[in-house]
Design a protein that fits this description.
By secondary structure, the protein is α+β, with helices and mostly antiparallel strands. Helices cover 35% and strands 19% of the residues. Strand 4 and strand 5 form a beta hairpin.
């Protein structure tokens, strides 16, 4: 046993109880605080059915479950079946496939019942299982053997307990690292052909985590799997550090902690921070340098926590500080070592949690500016507001981000996480929170060896950004691209805020394609965030599409509502995008393909007034329209298109090519006979009020009636300089 010792972790057991005698039908693994995983045949046993019955139990019956912890702690509750993967007998074999069931708990699992951490099962792993009854003495040890299709055989020694009835559905815990590699299915009964009795002693079989993941994915349980904790099989928690890394670290540790008493003092501080046990001070012992190096390379916050106690001792200059810098530099290239110590991480998480609650749009807004050259974590890209539950993932992701922008010569660059903290501090409303975040940055920068001047540069950048008062947001600009022929109803989406002074601010958006409703809600959340930040509510949404996207019914997309997001029963409070905002289309692909189109649009806006060209049966082809727009409607700024869709599309392209800035049409019209459907919009009325009239119509009862128009409006006004698809990454 080493100098650092892990306290005995409380082991909790979960079980499914039979309806009749209330005894354990089998065990279960806690997937999350709200879900249990067990075997389908355990559910069958619990409700009194044949063990291998393949049909899903009917009804919404609740099943009795039990949690047992150390110290005879127990709690009982109820769960109902959520996912069913039926047992699948193999022809002529003694084992079967499938046999999984996910149960949804009626009440959250007790705090002392910890969800399992999964890893892949590999041959030779030493495993341990418990009976569902929750008695510690029932542990049974086994070794993972031959992988046979979706299952894996287990073999146990002749000493101790053996896997048998009541163990099914229980987690197979890896003895070396407390992860879980699979689920117990059943023992192999003696005397079953083609095996003889002596060949089945202590043999059982299991479903590995790889198969659990695959079967639950196939069953549609993506949301449940997303909540599972998983480590890769080559993770340092499973494999230990590389020998070369240990050899490189030991000389640095020797230079800093060669004195045994000094090493013991710092290591006791380290053990306390990591929740480990260490010998008492009067035992006058210290860990070996090899053991200390191994711990620093496997526990993710160990190196930062050790240097937290060393930094004040070594001071800012001299050989010890140089050695400490070398130790930190080695940690920056090691996969297990994280940027922050245990204390630093807890302090930052607490401070940012308060910001996320009080000012949820501030952290994403600060990240957009502070980390402009970096690819932001997904939670900062998909919304303008940071959800509280996403905060931890954001902090952990940013710990791994470098930031080499503008580092003072001779100084280490300021890490991305500290840069973000400085920008949040500069803009946060609470002055006490600002002072606290800046003090935190100074402490962490001092431990990391970052110069005062380098941190001061980043702070000056943050203050300059926070002092800028952006012009009010007047519009939201959305660029849509179809995801492809395979997903015709999904779109790639980019969003900008258009300011009154003509400026553009990019909004973090997901890189993956989205469904229309997801984009509608994202636009609404962006508008809500802008209003909360500046007090100005944008009323207009300009949708930039390609030539083949002019038929996309963006104005009909659902935007949801704040109450609907929180309470699904209030989803009917939602409105269409075109009812909540003035939605117009823009097509720079078409207007930009003709050199004179942009100048013609500016000229028509300048002299066009309220003149309108209504395209009816008399304008039967593109040549006729071209003549009309060339003369006598050379100065006309608005065209109302009627007619069949195949002809209307051609005429629409002619209008844009000839610089007509405003084009209105009914996307659902089948012929010229449908022209009266547009009368409710007053299509030739005052031009400046046209987008507002469309918004009011889309919210009216008339729009919901059969045979109503489905108006679409192109409104090309002013320059639209949006960035192309080029994406830059931080050169460092």
């Amino acid at each position: 046993m080493g100098w650092f010792r892990r306290p005995a972790a409380p082991v909790s057991y979960a079980a499914l109880l039979r309806e009749g005698d209330k005894k354990a039908a089998g065990a279960a693994a806690l997937l999350s605080p709200n879900h249990l995983l067990t075997c389908a045949h355990v559910v069958n046993d619990a409700v009194g059915r044949d063990l291998l019955c393949a049909e899903r139990p009917t009804g919404e019956k609740f099943l009795r479950i039990a949690f047992h912890g150390s110290g005879r702690t127990s709690r009982y509750g109820w769960a109902r079946l959520s996912v069913w993967v039926a047992p699948e007998p193999r022809s002529g074999d003694v084992v079967w496939d499938g046999d999984l069931a996910v149960l949804e708990l009626k009440e959250t699992a007790p705090e002392w019942a910890t969800p399992v951490v999964w890893r892949d099962m590999t041959e030779g792993l030493e495993l341990r299982a418990w009976h569902g009854g929750g008695v510690g003495i029932t542990y049974a040890d086994a070794v993972a053997g031959f992988r046979d299709g979706p299952g894996c055989y287990l073999d146990g020694s002749l000493a101790g307990a053996a896997i048998g009835p009541g163990y099914s559905g229980g987690p197979l815990r890896v003895k070396s690292d407390r992860t879980v590699a699979g689920l117990v299915i059943a023992q192999v009964m003696s005397g079953q052909d083609p095996l003889r009795a002596q060949e089945t002693v202590r043999r059982s079989w299991a479903v590995p985590w790889q198969t659990v993941r695959e079967r639950l994915t196939r069953a549609g349980a993506h949301d449940i799997l997303a909540g599972c904790q998983v480590v890769a099989p080559d993770h340092l928690a499973c494999m230990g550090p590389a020998e070369d890394s240990v050899r490189q670290m030991v000389p640095l540790l020797r230079a800093l902690l060669d004195d045994t008493a000094r090493r013991a003092d710092h290591c006791r501080h380290l053990a306390a921070g990591l929740g480990l046990e260490a010998p008492l001070a009067d035992e006058q012992s210290a860990p070996t340098l090899d053991e200390l190096a191994t711990l620093l390379l496997t526990e993710e916050r160990a190196l930062a926590t050790l240097t937290e106690s060393l930094a004040p001792v070594v001071g800012g200059h001299g050989g010890d500080r140089t050695t400490l810098n070398g130790l930190l530099a080695l940690g920056r290239v090691e996969p297990a070592a994280r940027l922050l110590s245990v204390t630093e991480h807890e302090q930052l998480h607490t401070a940012l949690l308060r910001v996320a609650v009080d000012e949820p749009e501030l952290i994403p807004r600060a990240a957009q500016e502070a980390l402009r050259l970096l690819e932001l974590p997904e939670a900062l890209k998909r919304s303008s507001r940071l959800a509280v539950e996403d905060l931890d993932a954001v902090v952990r992701a940013l710990e791994e981000y470098p930031d080499g922008r503008g580092a003072t010569t001779g100084s280490l660059p300021v890490p991305a996480l500290l840069r973000l903290a400085e920008f949040v501090a500069a803009a946060v409303a609470d002055p006490d929170r600002r002072w606290w975040l800046r003090a935190w940055c100074e402490r962490v920068a001092g431990r990391l060896g970052i110069s005062v001047a380098a941190l001061a540069e980043r702070r000056a950048d943050a203050e300059a950004w926070a002092a800028r008062v952006p012009a009010p947001v007047t519009q939201i600009i959305v660029r849509l691209d179809r995801a492809g022929a395979a997903d015709p109803d999904r779109f790639l989406c980019e969003i900008w805020l258009g300011h009154k002074d003509g400026g553009r601010t990019a909004v973090a958006t997901p890189e993956d394609s989205l469904e229309p409703g997801e984009i509608g809600r994202l636009i609404r959340q962006t508008a809500d965030g802008s209003e909360a930040a500046s007090g100005h509510a944008p009323t207009r949404v300009d949708v930039v599409v390609k030539a083949d996207g002019l038929d996309i019914p963006v104005d009909e997309w659902d935007v949801g509502s704040v109450l609907g997001d929180l309470f699904p029963d209030l989803a009917e409070l939602s409105t269409p995008l075109g009812g909540r905002y003035q939605v117009t289309l823009r097509c720079p692909d078409l207007t930009g393909s003709v050199p004179t189109a942009a100048s013609e649009m500016r000229r028509r806006w300048a002299v066009g007034g309220d003149g309108t060209l209504v395209v009816d049966e008399s304008c039967h082809d593109i040549m006729s329209l071209h003549k009309l727009l060339d003369e006598p409607h050379r100065d006309t700024a608005r065209v109302v298109l009627h007619g069949p869709p195949e002809r209307r599309q051609q005429l629409l392209h002619v209008c844009l090519a000839m610089g007509v800035p405003v084009v209105l049409w009914d996307r659902d019209a089948g012929s010229h006979e449908d022209a009266p459907r547009m009368d409710a919009l007053d299509p030739t009325g005052p031009l400046d009020k046209l987008p507002r009239r469309l918004q009011e119509f889309r919210m009216s009862q008339d729009a919901a009636s059969d045979g109503a128009a489905r108006p679409a409006l192109i409104w090309e006004e002013g320059e639209l300089a949006l960035p192309g698809p080029l994406r830059l990454a931080d050169p460092s």
